[in-house]
Write a structure and sequence with these properties.
Elements (H helix, E strand, L loop, with lengths): L11 H17 L11 E4 L17 H8 L2 E4 L3 H10 L21 H7 L15 H28 L3 H15 L4 E5 L4 H5 L3 H11 L15 H4 L3 H32 L4 H12 L9 E5 L10 E6 L11 E2 L2 E2 H19 L8 H29 L2 H11 L2 H17 L3 H32 L3 E2 L2 H15 L5 E5 L8 E5 L9 H9 L1 E9 L8 E9 L2 H36 L26 H24 L2 H6 L4 H11 L3 H12 L3 H29 L10 H17 L4 E2 L1 H20 L7
Antiparallel strand pairs: 1-2, 3-4, 3-5, 6-7, 8-13, 9-10, 10-11, 11-12
Length: about 750
């Protein structure tokens, strides 16, 4: 870092210019080529003073004053800069992973090791006896070695396959403990093949395969030219090997490879077995040499095919295939299995309904990841208008697909329980994204950072929209009506403030009648107290006059006003008040630092993946709703709890992982915005879309929620506004949010099932 310049003794004007230059110099010295639009995102923090470069003098004092209160986050290229910029925009999906290939020189040594082939010989790294290597021996090593011993015996029995039998015998010792050993390909000179005597060939090959690194001459191997002078026997041995030995070994290595890949941390073992099956076993046996490394570092003679030191690497959770995280890659076959079982085994002959429901729900997680990756890729490579349309169209497609399929199934069966499950899932998503997601991010981020700060103004926009959409309520009460045995209990109004999605609920409580199915006189007095069960507000009195004339118009009005408020929020944050997010694309740049954008997914590829993932998501949602009925009817757990937890939070797991990653990097603003944006979309987009859907396809869904949903949602929003006021937090505040969320889950767990279920 250049040293700070000496303070000048001039007047205030030159001093201010010097300060301006020094802060602009901070931007200039950040790595990244902004001439290629490798943009920098700025967040509040005062950088140290730097010496002013000559090419920053052109900036005005206004621009440099903005540099004083901002620091920079670099992006490698224009696409990555757009993705980072979109993360800070309200209404855009926040995405942590890169949408472009990072330059190899910018990656850490840990990440470079993940993508390296197992053919690099390193210096002494200590003992090879580690817990991970012992785990390999117990899981794979012993039986893989035994398989090679059996295959060696079979090859020796065939006589013509004796050279391959010798190779299998050597590989049996290698795969029992491959660590600290090397498999090398050596070129056998043609002159050696022409020798008629075995001794001459052995001496020549032994002289040519010695190495100071590997400790002198190589032990003699069975040489095919020592027992047969004709190439006919060599070809016959190769045929026997390819027909008998190779297929069985490929099957064994394939089983190890798949198992190790699914365990993620054992991916080095998967690479080891894949390279053996595709390279080592296809080489002539006389070209394969297995040696044990020693402590010196003299280059090997010949090509190194395999060299492994560790079987386990815990950092492989960062591994990606074409930009896709390894966990999403591993869960993709689960989607295929779910679709095949769900639509082929329609009569539940192979699996039961709970198993299919679980598989369908788990399949939603990788599909949500692919949808999020596709949206982020398209938005980063497109202009603002296209990105906004894609985010608004597909941002809530995961939840809406499940909700709509559940409502359609409930309408066909005439079962109101599905509508109640959808309401529980909506409330669970709102409460979870307001309490659990930011709380968990605060706790995990607080483990690494003592205190985390975030942009309270940007969080205040989402909080204000949430408070508008949820509203407030002081309370309602019920009182017995006149006459009747048992009496009809009528809702009486208490002071209330109806607003947002709960306005129809409060309206129905004020003007509707509370009708109970079972009432028992506790005091045996006609004017005494009654204990009633299965109570609900009747909105269909007088042929539904109250509902169709008052409640339904209010529902439609709210469903139109909430999206309008959401659009106003978009215009406020993305057009007129963009400065509240403290994002600035700098024009300063450092010459000679160029990185071209190599995107993982092009726009067309991302669009195809987005459409296919949405189609598969619809199929999985259909299977989940098809097989949820036995769980609802036979389970002893409240349907409220199932909707609030499983159906609400499982589709949001990719978002939770993104939030945790942002929090670990001390970027809590994005962690909070992830939860807030989902909650705002639930209230201002998803619920109005479901209401408008009922106009074209009549269902049992009405915008009247139970008291438990209303109180839980409003309390969560009020608590969130209180926590987010000062713009800083720690793990204790996160613990409070998480504990409150678990308390609400306990309330839902012990709550009775909703009426109609």
């Amino acid at each position: 870092v250049p040293k700070a310049t000496e303070p000048r003794g001039d007047s205030d004007g030159p001093r201010r210019g010097s300060l301006c230059d020094r802060h602009c110099a901070t931007i200039n010295n950040v790595q990244g080529d902004l001439s290629d639009l490798g943009c920098h995102l700025h967040r509040p923090r005062v950088p140290p003073a730097m010496s002013p470069p000559s090419y920053c003098q052109q900036h005005s004092e206004e621009v440099c004053e903005s540099c004083v209160v901002k620091t920079t986050l670099t992006a490698e290229n224009v696409v990555e800069a757009n993705k980072l910029s979109n993360n800070y925009k309200f209404g855009f999906k926040k995405w942590k992973s890169h949408v472009t290939a990072r330059p190899w020189e910018d990656r850490s040594e840990i990440v470079k090791e993940l993508y390296s082939d197992l053919n690099v010989i390193r210096g002494s790294g200590g003992s090879t006896v580690t817990c991970g290597n012992v785990l390999y021996l117990l899981l794979f090593g012993w039986w893989l070695s035994f398989t090679y011993v059996l295959m060696a015996a079979m090859m020796f029995i065939t006589i013509v396959g004796a050279p391959y039998g010798r190779l299998c015998w050597d590989l049996a010792g290698y795969f029992l403990w491959p660590f600290g050993k090397v498999i090398q390909k050596v070129e056998v000179p043609k002159s050696h093949r022409a020798l008629g005597a075995c001794e001459a060939g052995a001496e020549a090959s032994g002289a040519g395969e010695s190495s100071a690194l590997l400790g002198g001459p190589v032990p003699r191997r069975w040489r095919p030219w020592c027992w047969a002078d004709s190439r006919h026997w060599q070809r016959a041995g190769a045929v026997v090997w390819l027909c008998l030995g190779y297929p069985m070994l490929v099957l064994a290595h394939g089983l190890v490879c798949v198992t190790a890949w699914l365990l993620v941390v054992l991916i080095p073992v998967a690479k080891l077995n894949a390279r053996t099956a595709t390279r080592v076993l296809l080489l002539p046996p006389e070209q394969v040499v297995i040696r044990r490394l020693r402590m010196t570092e003299v280059p090997l003679e010949g090509e190194v095919i395999l060299c492994c030191y560790r079987a386990v690497n815990p950092y492989y959770y960062k591994y990606a295939v074409d930009g896709i995280n390894v966990f999403a890659v591993n869960l993709l076959p689960l989607v295929l299995v779910t679709l095949v079982l769900g639509y082929v085994d329609s009569h539940n002959r192979l699996t039961s309904s709970p198993v299919k429901f679980t598989l369908a729900l788990l399949s939603i997680m990788p599909l949500s990841y692919y949808i999020g990756m596709a949206i982020a890729s398209i938005s980063a490579q497109s202009n603002f208008a296209v990105g906004a349309v894609v985010n608004a169209t597909f941002g809530s497609i995961t939840e809406l697909t499940f909700y709509i399929t559940a409502l359609i199934k409930g309408s066909r069966e005439g079962n109101r329980c599905y509508a109640e499950i959808v309401k529980s899932a909506l409330t669970g998503t709102l409460v979870g994204c307001v309490l659990f997601v930011p709380g968990l991010c605060m706790v995990i981020g607080g483990i690494r950072h003592q205190e985390q700060r975030f942009n309270s103004r940007s969080a205040g926009v989402s909080s204000a929209l949430l408070f508008l959409s949820v509203g407030g309520e002081l309370g309602t009460g019920v009182s017995p009506g006149l006459g009747g045995d048992p009496p009809v209990w009528v809702a009486t109004p208490c002071p209330s403030i109806p607003a947002g999605v709960f306005a129809p609920t409060l309206f129905s409580k004020v003007y509707g009648k509370l009708v109970c199915g079972e009432c028992h006189n506790v005091t045996q007095n006609p004017l005494g107290h009654y204990l009633c069960h299965n109570c609900h507000f009747d909105l269909m009195e007088n042929n539904g006059t109250l509902y169709y004339s008052h409640v339904q118009p209010l529902v439609y009005t709210v469903s139109l006003l909430l999206p309008a408020a959401y659009l106003i929020g978009l215009f406020f944050t993305l057009k007129t008040h963009t400065h509240i997010y403290d994002i600035h694309i700098s024009g300063c740049h450092m010459p000679g630092h160029h990185h071209s954008a190599v995107v993982h997914w092009s726009r067309w590829r991302a669009l195809v993946i987005l459409l296919l993932s949405t189609l598969c998501m619809s199929a999985c949602a259909d299977l989940a709703t098809e097989h949820i009925s036995p769980i609802l009817t036979n389970s002893t757990i409240s349907q409220y709890f199932i909707g609030v937890t499983v159906l609400a939070m499982v589709p949001e797991l990719p978002e939770i992982v993104n939030g945790i990653q942002f929090a670990l990097q001390n970027n809590l603003s994005l962690s909070i915005e992830i939860g807030n944006c989902i909650a705002v979309q639930v209230c201002m987009l998803q619920i109005p879309i479901l209401v408008l859907f009922t106009i074209f396809y009549p269902t049992n869904f009405t915008l009247v929620f139970s008291d438990l949903h209303v109180y839980a949602s409003m309390f969560s929003v009020v608590l969130m506004n209180y926590i987010f006021m000062d713009g800083k937090c720690d793990y204790f505040q996160g613990t409070v949010l998480v504990m409150v969320y678990f308390i609400l889950l306990a309330v839902y767990f012990f709550a009775p099932s909703p009426s109609g279920c």
